[in-house]
Structure formats: C-alpha cells, structure tokens
Amino acid sequence: MPLTAPLEIPQTVADTVVKPNIRGGDYRAIDTQDGFFIIRDVETMSSVPNGARGNEEAVDENFLGSIAKYHQSAYETGKIAFPLHIGHHDDQGLKKLEFAGLFKPTRVEEREVNGKKRPVLFSDWKVKADVFKRIQGGELPYRSPEIRNWANKKISSLAILDTEPPHFEFPMTTVGSVTVDPTAKFESDLSPDFKLEKFEEKEVVTFADKDEPKKKEPASVEAGVDGKCCAHCAQYSSMLHKFSKMLGLHYEGGHMA
Predict the structure, then answer these.
(1) DSSP track, 29-47
(2) Per-domain boundaries in the chain
(3) How confident is the model at residue 181 (pLDDT cuts 50, 70, 90)?
C-alpha cells in the first residue's frame, strides 16, 4: 500500500519569533495567511469618572456597551473598522504614525483594573504580520485608546505603545497560542472620516498615563488685555518651537497676535 503523504503545516511568522519570558495576557492569535494576524479578546478600555478626561458623562458599563454596539454596527452594516497605530497622535498632528491594522470592540465584562473591579471593553485586532512579530517579541506591550468626541461614544483609534506608560493597567500584550486558519474573517475598510496623518479635530483625548485633562482659557481673556496672552498662543508657540527646531532656528516664544 502507498504511504500517505505527511500533512504540510503552513509556515507562519509566529514560528520565527522567540517569545520573551514575561507575564502578560497571552492572547489567542490566528494566522489568516493573508499578511495579517487576528488577536482575540484584548482589554481595550475601562471606566472613566465624570470630567476626568474632559468627558461630561461618566464612562461606565452602559457607556462602554454603547461603544461596543457602535463599532459592531459599523462593522456589520458598513464593513468599517477603526485603525490600530503605533504610538499616540500629537496635538498638532505633526507626527506621522505607522498603520498597524484594525480593531473591533466586541463585549464588556468586569475585570480588575488598577486594583479595582471595573467594567472593561474588549476588542479583536487584525494586525499586520510585521507588527504581530513585534508584539509577539514583546516590543509593543501596551495599548491606549484615542477619543475625538465623547458624544459620539466611539473609539476613534487605538494606539499600540512601547515606552509610554498606559493609563489603564491591563495585562501586557503578549501572545499565547497561535493557530493557522485562512477562513477566519476580519475584513474591513478604514473609516472614511479618519486620516492617519492628522485628526481633523484639534483636540484628541489620549490615555497615555502622562496626559492630563486640558484646561480651556476663559473666553474673556483676549490678546493684549491686562498683559495676558490669548488662549491660542500656547498652541501656536509650541508648533513654532517644533518647526524652528526642525529648521535649526532658535525661537524664544512670546505673544502672537
């Protein structure tokens, strides 16, 4: 009788990476053999007290549930998921970020976060193979959501971080089991109102631990009144400082009309 040929197991990027000996979420991953990997059930966001990040409404279990429903509806009806990128956007939109893939919120469950039981929003990720290799190697252990408008009850994008400490102390993004399944689905297009290079809205709420809520200047503060600077000066001064540094010039700052 002829011998049966051995079953060929497809080579995957995961086979070439040595997993670091660190504790983390050990999330399930699927190699879909299309240049991407799916990572399942990743903690993405938790509750936020009223006003802590410029949010007029407390971000509780119901609020997080609304976020999940928004993204699920957008994906199911419009085939739209929102972006993963490496690093946070800056306020001026000068930083060009690396596109890492897509994410889709899935459910809300209670977990321990920062030492307390809190509702947690989970999501699935569709990650580029080269980015997955870095995640699996322990180079991108944190994540942090970005919110453009709290009233929309959606996450505009999700940052994958290396050195920035996250606000939500979730398990680090480590990979556990990796299976091969070309039929596993997570196909989508980028949201049409998203630009990776720069947000159209000026203010972006990020959840890196270093960020603090921004305080708006009173409307009554006008340029040149009682020696006070106008509210937009700090923003433009920061931009000029960055441009000057790029051009090798020296800028001291000061009032701008």
Answers:
(1) EEE-SSSEEEEEEEEEEE-
(2) 13-206, 216-257
(3) very high
